[in-house]
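Q: Joint fold for the lines below.
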Amino acid sequence: MLNHAAVLIAEDEPFIALDLALAIEDAGGEVVGPVASVSEALSVLEIHTVTAAILDVNLTDRDISPVAEHLLSRGIPVLIQTGVGLPPELAARYPDLVVRIKPCPAASLVTQLAVMIAGHQVGETPSSSATASRRP
Amino acid sequence: MKSVVYLVCDSRGPLKRQFERSRAMASKSAEPKGVGGFPRPKRDGDARLAASGAKKDPKAFLIVGIGASAGGLEAFKSFFGKTPTDTGMAFILVQHLSPDHKSMLTELLARTTDMDVIEATDGMEVKPNCVFIIPPDATLTIRGGRLKVERPAPPRERRRPIDTFFESLAEDQGENAIAVILSGTGSDGTLGLATIKERGGLTLAQAEFDHHAMAGMPQSAAATGQVDEVLAVEAMPARIVAYHRHMTGVAGAKDGEGLRQDAATHLATIMGALRARSGHDFSEYKGKTLLRRLQRRMQVLQVETPFAYIERFRKQPEELDMLFRELLIGVTQFFRDPASFEALAATVIADLVAGKGADGEIRIWVPGCSTGQEAYTLAILIREAMDTRRPTPKVQIFGTDIDDRAIALARLGRYRKPAAGLSPERLERWFTEDRGDSCVISEIREMCVFSTHSIIKHPPFSKLDLISCRNLLIYIDAEMQDRVMRTFHYSLKPGGRLFLGSSESVTRATRLFSVADKKHRIFERREIEGASLPDLSGIGRRLELSPTTSAQRASSDDRIDKNARRVTEKYNPPHVVVDGSDQIVRFSGAAMVRYVELATGAPSYALFDILRKPLRPAVRALLKEVRASREAVRHDNVPIRIDGSARRLALLGEPLADQGPESGLIVVVFQDGGAATSAASARSGGEVTDGVKALEQELSTTRVQLQSTIDELEVANEELKSSNEEHQSVNEELQSSNEELETAKEEMQSVNEEVQTINSEMVSKNELLTSLNSDLKNLLESTEIATLFLDGLLRVRSFTPGVTDIFHLREADIGRPVTEIVSLLNYSGLQADVKTVLRKLAVVEREVTLPETGATFELRIRPYRTTDNVIDGVVLTFLDISARHVADEALRGSEARFRGAVEAVEGIVWTNNAVGEMAGEQPGWSALTGQTPAEYEGFGWAQAVHPDDARPSVEAWRAAVAAKRLFEFEHRVRRQDGEWRHFSIRAAPILDKAKRVVEWVGVHTDITQSKRAEEHRALLLRELDHRVKNLFSIVGGMVTLSARSATTPQELAKTIQGRLGALATAHLLISPRQAASAGADQETTLGELVAKILSPHIDPSASGESSRAALNGPEVTIGGEAVTNLALILHEMATNGAKYGALSRSGGRVEISWKVDGGRLILTWVEFGGPEVKGSPAREGFGSLLTRRSVGALGGEVAFDWKPSGLVVCIQAPMERLTPRRVESD
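A: Joint structure:
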């Protein structure tokens, strides 16, 4: 389903991170990470090129904003899952960011990510598909 | 004025008249000067008089200066008691006041008169109908109608406040000044009063017979003759008012300069009469001066017309004496006639100074020095001449005058400015300025000695270098001049100089003095024989006796006597009368020529100068015998050859008893005994030789005797001279000490006056104290506070009537110890309490009750402090507080209720006015915010509201006020301590009957606490929400993951259960339990966590040696999310161990040890006794994967070592990730 797309997983909860990683592998994707901290994520991104990313908001060292901005500025689809919501600044800058509230089954996340990647590749407008997908 | 009318011809005839004329001429050019006993006509007062006359203006009013000292208060009271309040005059009081004593004169006098009584201040304008009083420690003067107050007063010995004021008053007001001298000791005021009189003012002095007078001051003033009237103090006001009326009455008769033309026409007549009466001619003096003097005299007498005045002195000739004195005023000045003084300095003084060494002495006499200017002038000249010389000789200048007032002034050395005749340089150098006066510096002052002395009556000074006697001789007659010149001759040293006035000369005494400088009248003493000091004692007697003797002679010399004497004279033997020094006093008739012969040279009356030489030894012997025996002596048969014939004479000598034996007058009678007989002469032929021999023998003996007598005489004379010198020096010393005594006396007098003044004030004060005392007594009695005064020994000093209710006290008990007096109180500690008060000087308070009546008293014991703060006993006050007790209780109850209410409300109440503005006292709001009424007024309260809330608050409040509805709001208010507090506000309008808003009442309730609690709850809720969501995610992941590895549902369930258990353990360990630590996770230790996680896998029954797990490591605090991760890691390892490892078998053990090294936690998991491990597994198990991920999430690393003996796991993680981390409220 993911067709070997490289997906960055940033999640500090080992169970969730492993579950997601396995779910992405199950869907035919390649897992980058999972990383538990922003610094780890940024250093990984220097080496790897990713197709998409699933990001938790609060990592061990700080909130996800630098990673999200890094990816979004490169037009890479980003799916946020959070228990608490977005940092206000990030929400203000990227009002169309796709956000899922925890708890959220890994399979469902992977499915949505696949749709986002597909939409991104087809229309080159990740935001439109993301916007649509925000209204389940 | 040039014509002089001689109304009475002098008995001495033409000679006297000639002298008068020469005097008149002299006085044209001579400067008048004060001479003891001689007129000192005033001339230079004209300019000043004219000035004071010119500034007269119609609005001017009289200013009465009143001086008093001791006893003055009473005199002032009497004076003002009789003074009308609308006199149109101003009164200025000058008194001797102690500088450090506050005068109460102002208030004391204000009670006596209705006029304004004002203490003088500097620059105050003098107004009519007011009384001004000198302030203490000040010099009061007046200038331009304004008072001048200078502080401080001069030192006591120089303080003459009345003189000073009167002098300024005279200068400022002239004729409008009145001087009044009232009771006082000393002489202050005398000189000032004279000045007032000199300027035309009225002068009065208090009469001696006044019952409360201290007579010193008024007497001193009256003694000068300058007082117009001596009156009882009560009569003075009327006299002053009458004077004023007369003055305004005659104002019309005066011309522009204030001179009365009608008087001028009669001036000549009056002056003629004056000359006749006094013998002094004032015709050469300026008419204006005379006129002013005359006018003043008329003013004083209140005589309206010149005719009336002439009438007056015809009836009372003494009035002319008064007028005469009016015209005599002493005037002299420094360097009068500067050219002469310069000449004197250049010659005489220069020589004098040059001729003296350090031990030399310059002695100068200034007779008739008046107020001392001439003496000081000489002192200055000498001092200037000595400037360049070292060492300086001693200088003594004797200034004498018979006028003791003038001498007193000379001693002061103090001259009113401007001191005439002084150049600015000399003024600067030799004078100091003191309150407008020029004072001679002490260096000059010490050169001069002043004393009262009469040149005629008293022995003169001697051994003088210079006598300066200027303008004195012109006032004395020729005979007196002659005597004075002889005196001067005697006084001067050989070569001494005499310095006379420009119009004086020594024409009559050229024998005694030679001219040294004719132009400047400097003369030199001639060295001559026979000059002697005139008989001073004789002068006095002659002056006294001559009128009587001549009168007697006139009466007895009747015609018969005269004729009889003429007849008998022919038969009288020739005789002479000689005095004690053999001077001939009387000759008998012509027959006497036979016995005398005239010698060439100056005529002489000495008997032995003119007696025929042959007679001289015989007469000398006769006189000697008469003087020795004091009886008549007769020498017969004295042979004498007269005109070639030998005669025999009988010589008789007899003292004139009638004239008294002391007179030394002796009559020597020459009786012709006929021609010596030839027989006698023949007979004597033989005898002659014998007789001659005998006589010669006798003569030589006599000569020897004579010589020795002469020697003795000379010795005696020398002794007399030296003792005379001693007397002179003693005299001078006495003069000096006299001066010192004078000064001391003045000082004493001044102190005495002050003491008197203080005394009279003390008396008044005493009266005040008495009245205050009675006030105090009434106060004490009316307060109804029982008060008891005790002394240090507890003896009753005094008490108020109220005390008798408490103690059985009577008046007679004063002085008894209070302990002996029966007290009705239930109080035994009195003695001890009083001692405490006296020891600690603190107030002791007690509540005592009277058991009898049940009354309660508050007893206060205070130390009794005298006004000078000395403790002298105690004061006990008993205040009845029975009623207060009840009131106190009630008050306490209400206060407590109120406090409770306020505390219960926990808020403040405020009011706003009808239009919603804060106003008035808002104690609650003030206390809360610290704002003052000015700050919170209107909408000022918004300043104390949080800036974010202020605007909404004001808007909401305005809306509520507009709508008149209940106002409910919340905002933050800055408390007084600066802290922001949350308040909820409720305010409601108070309506009147017409439904109009009267005011708003609001309550601020502090809700800060509940607000905080609310926020805290919200935070906790968010946190919980987050955790739950996270937990669900984890559980979701866990289930999915567990399902991947589980083979059976049972296994799945067990796995999930185990993992959930680990999660639950972690949660239990770290979940926040208290509200206070909201958001902060609980901390725990690694050891605790390990034990908890392992416990399900270890047989709880096994312990000690057989324990399957060994924990070893230091206490490491861990917290936060890391705990969850660690719990999962440990759980996975324990599960793995239990399933496949050491814990799967009994006897298998696991050792867990940890340490912190370099900020990293190193944890080692070692298994023993399990099944043999056959290398690392081919595929990483899920457990180790999870472990690896979890450690990775902690930023750490994990290493697995599958040793055959058992698994060894080593975990490393940074400590910073393991310690508690505050969860952001994201």
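Q: Anything notable?
A: The CA atoms of residues 543 and 858 of chain B lie 94 Å apart. The mean pLDDT of chain B is 77.
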